[in-house]
């Protein structure tokens, strides 16, 4: 679909080069008012019909175990887009460009780019896989965790995040051998379960639940699809920038915030290497690790490795070694400045990689260890934006003309009530070593999450180029009524213990997955909309709509947004819940804040059962023997490394002492943390 555009690319790290395009709108410079390419659908008498398109860049923030929430959002998005696509294919085939006869809105959406950090990188890689897979959604009718359809192994979003990423596998000791020393120990938890989960996704058989052909190619996913995954490069990349001053003066710096870029080709063929955009690796064919199914299977393995590297939480999970060509870094070397080039944009003098890092032709590979990408860049907005607009472009947020946007999925948005780090109220005790270290860690994490421009625009209701989706859950009261609304971290079961609580219980992850689906439905129905005068909408179709036609699907106007806004993606399939409160009452609320509050209140009927209400509840005591076993193995490694001559009996006693100190006390600590988060409270 987008392959024809790639042949026009030159070396984008050098805008002054001959042939640098002035109107490319994809990987190059800014294009004012650029409109995405239309999407074509076949008609029965031959030829195609073109539909106007709205392009989005999906940005998936770091989430630890709350990746289950993001996965649920994606599962519902896939279902809604699949339903809409099937209806458009049927309408196009039958009615062609007689849009007044169509049953559904005749426009299209394209996921143009995906960018992720940490758990968001894992979800980003799953998007590339799911783009070609047929699978069934996990709906609310499967709310029983032990139900016959709840395992849903064919669904890559659900299978990886709900079925496989569990603490029990992470506490196994198979990764600790007799020769493991303190210096060679890779992580406190067993990372093998994470690797096995990734392998299971790529090893999935190409058979499909509906028996139809594999793979399924989806028009709403760009082909090729750029995927950008943020990683923490523990080695660092040395750069030098030239400044005016002493002859030969250079400013040198080392950058640790790195990115792995991929171009995922489902049906299109990659362009020759010289014509590809810089810094991108090719991933081609069906998603599998089996060379018998795809001779380019190792490319998919490389994408999986990068996703795992981005999600490797420091110390808890093992770092992963990655490799990039030194030439890949030239894609990022320029910064804004005063040197005007052919397309009229201004750049600084190019940076150079320090001597010894690469050869003149950039042929040396850079091999480096990694850690969680969220520690350096937890919300990688700029990677998505640079694909949508070019490296210096800006998104058009004007309602009547907006045709591209970033959609941010963040399970842990900043709490406006949270006090910023360092804003302690006097009097306070002098800051000690431990306190300083704790504050430094918190400041480090907060800074990695900070991008004021994009966050402000996402929160601006008049900006149609940024949309944000984060957890929202209605609470119940003891008498069965509606309680308050939980937002962000408080709304999800994975929100305790710094985001790790989801690993403790499949029920927690299942809840968050279903909540993600519910929130996605609410987002599409209420907030993901544009003003009616936007050229995306075919006015003739809207004028021809009757009540009977509208009854075939959900309302096409935003229920909580401003009057006159139309939905970009109409959710055609009603959720398996009681009807929401009559829309007539909702529309009598003229105040925008009242309308939004009303819709949030109605969301109570859409929330899955909170784990605090479920019986039986998760019991932390069930993990005691696993915690003790892991603690014993780690203690043995420490004793062998630091006291190798300790008698066998004393070594055994040391192991048991550590196990006893960590087993039951850890379970008690878990219980208190879960209670504090409301996971033992039906009304939390």
From TrEMBL:
Motif (DGA/G): 372-374
GO molecular function, one term: hydrolase activity
Gene Ontology biological-process annotations: lipid catabolic process
Domain of life: Bacteria
Active site: 118, 372
Database matches in Pfam families: Patatin
Signal peptide positions on this chain: none
Gene3D superfamilies: Cytosolic phospholipase A2 catalytic domain
Chain location of the short sequence motif GXSXG per the record: 116-120
Keywords per UniProt: Hydrolase, Lipid degradation, Lipid metabolism
Record-given protein name: PNPLA domain-containing protein
Organism the protein comes from: Sandaracinobacter neustonicus
Taxonomic lineage: Bacteria, Pseudomonadati, Pseudomonadota, Alphaproteobacteria, Sphingomonadales
């Amino acid at each position: 679909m987008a392959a024809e555009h790639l042949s026009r690319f030159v070396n984008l790290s050098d805008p002054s080069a001959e042939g640098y395009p002035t109107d490319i709108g994809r990987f190059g410079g800014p294009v004012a008012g650029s409109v995405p390419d239309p999407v074509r659908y076949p008609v029965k008498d031959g030829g195609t019909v073109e539909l106007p398109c709205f392009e989005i860049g999906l940005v998936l923030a770091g989430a630890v175990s709350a990746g289950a929430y993001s996965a649920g959002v994606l599962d519902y998005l896939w279902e809604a887009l699949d339903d809409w696509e099937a209806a458009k294919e049927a309408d196009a085939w039958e009615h062609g460009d007689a849009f007044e006869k169509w049953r559904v809105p005749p426009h299209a959406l394209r996921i143009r780019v995906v960018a992720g950090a940490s758990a968001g990188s894992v979800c980003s890689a799953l998007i590339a896989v799911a783009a070609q897979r047929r699978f069934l959604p996990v709906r609310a009718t499967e709310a029983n965790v032990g139900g016959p359809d709840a395992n849903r192994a064919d669904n890559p979003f659900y299978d990886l995040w709900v079925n496989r990423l569990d603490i029990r596998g992470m506490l196994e000791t198979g990764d600790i051998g007799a020769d493991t020393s303190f210096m060679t120990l890779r992580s406190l938890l067993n990372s093998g379960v994470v690797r096995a989960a990734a392998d299971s996704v790529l090893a999935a058989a190409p058979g499909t639940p509906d028996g139809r052909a594999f793979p399924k190619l989806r028009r709403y996913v760009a082909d090729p699809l750029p995927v950008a995954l943020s990683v923490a490069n523990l080695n660092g990349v040395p750069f030098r920038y030239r400044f005016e001053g002493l002859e030969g003066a250079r400013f040198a710096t080392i950058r640790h915030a790195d990115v792995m870029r991929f171009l995922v080709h489902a049906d299109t063929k990659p362009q020759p290497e010289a014509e590809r955009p810089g810094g991108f690796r090719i991933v081609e064919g069906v998603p599998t690790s089996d060379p018998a199914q795809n001779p380019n299977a190792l490319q998919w393995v490389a994408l999986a490795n990068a996703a795992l590297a981005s999600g490797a939480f420091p110390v808890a999970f093992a770092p992963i070694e990655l490799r990039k060509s030194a030439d890949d870094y030239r894609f990022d070397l320029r910064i804004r400045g005063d040197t005007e080039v052919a397309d009229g944009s201004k750049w600084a003098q190019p940076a150079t990689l320090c001597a010894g890092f690469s050869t003149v032709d950039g042929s040396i590979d850079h091999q480096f260890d990694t850690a969680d990408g969220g520690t350096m860049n937890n919300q990688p907005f700029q990677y998505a934006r640079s694909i949508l607009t070019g490296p210096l472009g800006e998104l058009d947020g004007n309602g009547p003309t907006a045709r591209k946007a970033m959609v941010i999925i963040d399970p842990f948005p900043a709490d406006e009530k949270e006090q910023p780090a360092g804003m302690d109220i006097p009097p306070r005790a002098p800051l000690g070593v431990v306190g300083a270290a704790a504050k430094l860690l918190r400041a480090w994490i907060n800074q990695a999450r900070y991008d004021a421009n994009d966050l402000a625009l996402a929160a601006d209701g008049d900006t149609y180029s940024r949309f944000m989706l984060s957890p929202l859950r209605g609470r119940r009261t003891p008498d069965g009524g509606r309680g308050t609304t939980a937002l962000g971290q408080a709304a999800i079961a994975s929100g305790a213990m710094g985001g790790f609580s989801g690993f403790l219980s499949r029920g927690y992850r299942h809840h968050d997955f279903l909540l993600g689906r519910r929130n996605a439905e609410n987002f599409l129905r209420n907030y993901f909309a544009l003003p009616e005068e936007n050229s995306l909408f075919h006015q003739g179709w809207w004028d021809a709509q009757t009540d009977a036609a509208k009854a075939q699907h959900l309302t096409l106007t935003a229920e909580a947004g401003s009057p006159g806004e139309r939905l970009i993606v109409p959710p055609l399939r009603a959720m398996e819940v009681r009807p929401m409160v009559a829309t007539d009452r909702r529309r009598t609320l003229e105040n925008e804040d009242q309308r939004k509050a009303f819709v949030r209140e109605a969301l109570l009927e859409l929330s899955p059962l909170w784990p605090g209400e479920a019986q039986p509840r998760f019991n932390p005591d069930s993990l005691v023997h696993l915690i003790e076993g892991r603690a014993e193995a780690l203690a043995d490694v420490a004793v062998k490394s630091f006291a190798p001559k300790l008698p066998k009996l004393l070594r055994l006693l040391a192991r048991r002492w550590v196990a006893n100190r960590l087993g039951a006390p850890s379970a008690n600590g878990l219980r208190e943390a879960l209670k504090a988060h409301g996971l033992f409270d039906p009304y939390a």
